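Please think about what follows:
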Amino acid sequence: MRVKVPDTEMYAYPDISVVCGKAILKDDHMDTLLNPVVIFEVLSPSTESYDRVAKFAHYRRLATLKSYVLVSQEAPMIDRYDRGDDGQWVLSDCWGVDSSLQIPSLGISIPLAKVYENVDLPPDHLSRQPWAKSD
């Protein structure tokens, strides 16, 4: 579903958007969400920079947004940004198929083994940070 950031007039199609409670839609077409609580973007080499910087700058203007989650296609690695009570965004990351993604704003935990279950990853990327040297 398309998401609109009213403050910047930006429209985007996140890979996943989550609403808690009733969805607020822009118009009668019922195709534009105004109140996501969590947005997920799956990173690709061609869009990673835009998703991390420019798109996130727009999404941060959504008063309802509590978490922004960036999922790597290259390795079992997920970055999660959470808006604190003071309005500041805090980065948490998890990596390796043995870890789990915690999403406090939803009260859930998702095992990375499930997220990457059908993704063909190099064996040396399964349980360590991809930039770490192997033994």
